[in-house]
Amino acid sequence: MGETRQVYLDYSATTPAKPEVVNEMLPYFTEKFGNASSLYETGATAKDAVENARIQVASLINAEPNEIIFTSGGTESDNWALISTARRLENKKGRHIITSAIEHHAVLHSCQYLEKEGFEVTYVGVDREGIVDPKEVEAAIRPDTVLISIMYVNNEVGSVQPIQEIGKIAKKHGVLFHTDAVQAAGNIHIDVKNSDIDMMSLSSHKIYGPKGIGALYVRKGVNLPAYMHGGAQERKKRAGTENVPAIVGFGKAAEIAKENMEAHVEHISSLRDHFVKRVLAEIPHTYYNGSRELRHPGNANITFEYVEGESILLYLDFVGISSSSGSACSSRSLQPSHVLTAMGVPVELIHGSIRFTFGDPTTMEDINYTVDQLKIVIEKLRNISSISSEKGW
């Protein structure tokens, strides 16, 4: 018996750091180890590296370098944007926030935290494709609305939200607009100069950079209070010694993502389309969740009727295939996906839903191997499933 093929299909959870990224980082652990806040030459070298990375990250979304603030990742950026904005404006304008029912938990839990402090949050719904209606967002705006936060691309079903339209609505009503673009950056062309986005969350490890580093884009003129205190780093907005190696890696990953975006998108979308075509044609009682058009190029969220998703994942892992039932941040939860629930998918179908996401290292051989294994496991599980027996399948 030959070795089991190893196939990683969870690139929306995390990506491997590219070799060029790691090579760029390595000197800053050793000979270029200086503290970027120090005034002597070693510190100045580190500071120059941080500022170069700031330029690289800004370029990915067509921002100005001084609009990029480095954070520990997307979760911190989301928390910072929501909580600091809410607290700054509560006594000036009000205590109302608008978000969507399908946000990442970094946003949803921040909103729940604020609700405990007395803020009101409106959670707008989505259609069956997982897309927010801008008219519903506009209808939810009140005189005391201080912030709208709608994600750019959903992390579970890959639906791309009408960010341009929502941004225009927010600007028209004088409301700040934040978007979690963790899944969008590097996969969709983003130009903050041609949008009305006030704040945007980014994460390095979703674009083949290191973990533990991200950024918050803050449009020039937006007054965002400091979230961490104790030093003058990041223009006195985020205290703490800069994680220079990680920042350098993030910058390099952003540079590569911008240069290779067209080829990257073409590669993963072709794999995704082939995968979906085979699964829907060769495995009965399967459904493709989300929009076919307005979608992350490397996302395929599939429901396999009459089986439990957890059983599918365990079998796939046994044959070397890594995928997920949704967000990695909540993968250990037995609760049905809040995203699919908001889309109106019945609970029994939600539990049979798997997210497959594809990346640069994925090959067509990986895709075909995965579909072949899926055909075997789904048939086996359905044969022993009490659900399929009751349905007469």
Overview of the structural elements:
41% of the residues lie in helices and 13% in strands. By secondary structure, the chain is an alpha/beta fold. The longest helix has 39 residues, at 244-282. Residues 327-331 have low confidence and may be disordered.
Key descriptive features of the protein:
single chain; alpha/beta; 7-stranded mixed beta sheet; 3-stranded antiparallel beta sheet; 41% helix
Topology:
Elements: E1 7-8, H1 19-25, H2 41-60, E2 68-71, H3 74-89, E3 96-100, H4 105-116, E4 120-124, H5 134-140, E5 145-149, H6 163-172, E6 176-180, E7 199-203, E8 214-218, H7 233-236, H8 244-282, E9 286-289, E10 299-304, H9 309-318, E11 321-322, H10 338-342, H11 347-350, E12 353-357, H12 364-384, H13 386-391
Helix pairs in contact: 1-8, 2-8, 3-4, 8-12, 9-12
